């Protein structure tokens, strides 16, 4: 059930301070968890290693199993087919996840006890909320590639989330995505500073228009 490797904690932490928008820019702007996955926890940043679950809509038996085998820093990523009929997690599972050191949840489905989620501060992204509880019958799988909001996630991928949404960085390409993302963040920090002090250079706008014959 654990036939995958996790990225080093050092590599994961290097992504923590980079906005998802910048990482997305360096993944060709086509890899994302969809606008339907929204934060229920406030503004805490999600950053960790994916532990994936595929489950029948409305059933969370295999999510419980994932919590039992999760390691500190794991993000439980659940493909529940986007169904909103029954909640996949609630306050009890949330608190158990905290004791396990889980870094957060990404659920292509519904949650409940949204007030407790908001107060906990543990990052939780989901498609919606309902008071209806889950079933615990299965079937399901842990550790297999899943799709959440149109985004393919494999266990061991680096999962990032902030106010703009959720993104999974393939573990196999994390290093090559990190370098240009760090460089872009530095460039944008410089641009913001030049805007603040009035020295921003906007000549690129007319140059681009001329290059396009406009």
From TrEMBL:
Q: GO molecular function of the protein, one example?
A: lyase activity
Q: Where does substrate bind?
A: 90-93, 112
> What keywords appear on the UniProt entry?
Lyase, Magnesium, Metal-binding
What is the top-level taxon of the source organism? Bacteria
Q: Which residues bind Mg(2+)?
A: 113
Q: Which Pfam families match?
A: RraA-like
Name its co-factor(s): Mg(2+); a divalent metal cation
Q: What is this protein called?
A: Putative 4-hydroxy-4-methyl-2-oxoglutarate aldolase
Species the sequence originates in:
Nereida ignava
Its ancestry begins with: Bacteria, Pseudomonadati, Pseudomonadota, Alphaproteobacteria, Rhodobacterales
């Amino acid at each position: 059930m654990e036939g995958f490797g996790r990225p080093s904690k050092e590599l994961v932490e290097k992504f923590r301070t980079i906005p998802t928008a910048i990482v997305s820019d360096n993944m060709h702007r086509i890899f994302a968890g969809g606008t339907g996955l929204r934060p229920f926890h406030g503004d805490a940043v999600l950053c960790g290693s994916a532990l994936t679950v595929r489950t029948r809509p409305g059933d969370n038996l295999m999510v419980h199993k994932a919590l039992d085998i999760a390691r500190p820093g794991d993000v439980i990523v659940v493909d529940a087919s986007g169904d909103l009929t029954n909640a996949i997690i609630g306050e009890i599972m949330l608190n158990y996840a905290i004791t396990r050191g889980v870094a957060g949840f990404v659920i292509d489905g519904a949650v409940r006890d949204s007030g407790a989620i908001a107060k906990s501060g543990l990052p939780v992204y989901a498609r919606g909320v309902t008071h209806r509880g889950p079933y615990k019958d299965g079937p399901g799988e842990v550790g297999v590639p899943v799709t959440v909001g149109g985004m393919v996630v494999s266990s061991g991928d680096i999962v990032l989330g902030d106010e703009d949404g959720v993104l999974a960085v393939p573990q196999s390409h994390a290093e090559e995505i990190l370098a240009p993302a760090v460089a872009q963040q530095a460039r944008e920090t410089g641009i913001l500073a030049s805007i603040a002090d009035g020295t921003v250079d906007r000549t690129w706008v007319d140059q681009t228009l001329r290059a396009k014959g406009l």
